[in-house]
User: Which sequence fits this backbone?
C-alpha cells in the first residue's frame, strides 16, 4: 500500500516582515496613557497598543509557615478532617486577589489555614464556584480575625506578630485594640 502525499490547505502564510524596534511600535506617549482593562492585557489607546505590566506578587514565606499545626478555618462540612497536622495555607482561586494568571498564585494575604481535605475540595472539588468562593471568603474573615489576635498578642513570637501585621497591612486592616 502506497501513501499519498498530504494535500496543501488553502491557507497561505503572511509574508515575513523585518523586526521593528519597540519605539516604533509603541510611542512613549501612548505607554503613559494606557487605560487598564485587566492586568497583563493589551489595551488600545489613541490607535496604539501597549501591554499593561502585571503587579508584583506579595509574598511572605513566614505567613505561609504559620499555618503548620493550626486548626482548619475552612471547615467544609462532610469534607474537613479537622487534623491540624495537615494544615497548610490555601491560596485564593480568584483573579481579583492577585493570582490565577499564567500559573500565578494569589497574594499571600489572601490565604486561609486549611486542612488537606478542605484544600483539595477548594482546588479540585466538585462543588460549584459560588459555593467555593463563599466558603473561602467566610474562612478568610476568620483568618483575618486570627491574624489580628496574633498581631496584638504580646505572648506570640515576634516573627509571627510581624507576619500577621504584614498581612493586615496589605489588607488595610488593623489589629484588635489598635486605634483606627
Assistant:
Amino acid at each position: 500500500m502506497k501513501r499519498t502525499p498530504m494535500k496543501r490547505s488553502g491557507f497561505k502564510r503572511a509574508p515575513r516582515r523585518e523586526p521593528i524596534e519597540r519605539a516604533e511600535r509603541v510611542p512613549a506617549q501612548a505607554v503613559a496613557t494606557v487605560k487598564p482593562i485587566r492586568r497583563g492585557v493589551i489595551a488600545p489607546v489613541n490607535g496604539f497598543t501597549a501591554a499593561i505590566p502585571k503587579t508584583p506578587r506579595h509574598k511572605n514565606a513566614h505567613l505561609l509557615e504559620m499555618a503548620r499545626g493550626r486548626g482548619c478555618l475552612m471547615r467544609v462540612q462532610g469534607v474537613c478532617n479537622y487534623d491540624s497536622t495537615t494544615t497548610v495555607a490555601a491560596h485564593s482561586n480568584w483573579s481579583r486577589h492577585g493570582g490565577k494568571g499564567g500559573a500565578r498564585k494569589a497574594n499571600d494575604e489572601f490565604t486561609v489555614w486549611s486542612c488537606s481535605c478542605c484544600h483539595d475540595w477548594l482546588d479540585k472539588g466538585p462543588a460549584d464556584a459560588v459555593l467555593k468562593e463563599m466558603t473561602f471568603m467566610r474562612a478568610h474573615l476568620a483568618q483575618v480575625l486570627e491574624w489580628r489576635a496574633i498581631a496584638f498578642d504580646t505572648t506570640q513570637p515576634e516573627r509571627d506578630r510581624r507576619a500577621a501585621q504584614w498581612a493586615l497591612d496589605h489588607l488595610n486592616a488593623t489589629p484588635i485594640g489598635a486605634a483606627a
In short: The chain has a mean pLDDT of 80. Residues 22-51 form one domain. Residues 65 and 157 are 13 Å apart (CA to CA).
